[in-house]
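Run log, item B.
One chain of 263 residues. Sequence copied directly from the ordering sheet:
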Amino acid sequence: MIIKGRESVLQRVVFELKYRYGYTYLDVCGRTVNLIQKDYPEWILRGNDPNPQNAPLLSMKNGCIFNFSVLKHDLSLEKPIGEGPLPQEDLDDFINQVELLSAIVIDQLGLKVFSRVGFRAWYIFPCDSEQESEKWLLDLGIYKISENVSTEFGGQILSAGIAIIILGEDRKFRIAFNGVERQAQIDFGQGILNIPSRSLHAGQKDFLKQQVAIKRRMRQNPEFAAMIDVDCFIDDPKIINPAQFIHTSIAQYTKALESILKR
């Protein structure tokens, strides 16, 4: 999305399907994992200690993470650290993964009653400072904070956000606008250390940026960003068509947000 002349970065997407009467999971967890790995060898176990309560899978193709349990299953994909937004190709692969794995889980667990289907996407708009992110969000004209709030408290508002739930024609939308402080990520070879940017002093930040510039073993995302968090969902859905639900959700909220925020 392009909002007020600023292009968004699609940071993360999640699909979730909640269901009832999924206790067959306790009997067929291993069989389901075997079936997924046999038909789609891109999937490997995430971690070295699988058990009936926790056997998440990781895609070697794009880093997508898959979890399933008695109550729900979900797939999530996040953009690689230090790289650009999730490309359309990765999003298409994610939607295909959702469709294929959902069909396997529904079949293996014999699912017929569903309590919620949802798709969520996080869009960030990189900013140079916390103040810039807050100002950019307020300038969208979606919400306004009364000056009386800061006056009565005898101070100034450092951050503000809003979450709106909208009942659409065939689904609900929860849309949140807020400023975020992103994590500085330092690669030490044996693991990734996440550090809030504000905890680094000026000298450490300068050093971090220098390391990024020469492509050494340190990587960093923008320190601050404005975020638009969109969650689309249907309660008690009668029909489950994951790919169609994701495609139509993206089309609906993209058109609406771009139309509203261009005014």
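Observations after the first pass:
- Residues 88-109 form the longest helix (22 residues).
- Residues 91 and 252 are 17 Å apart (CA to CA).
Flagged for discussion on Thursday.
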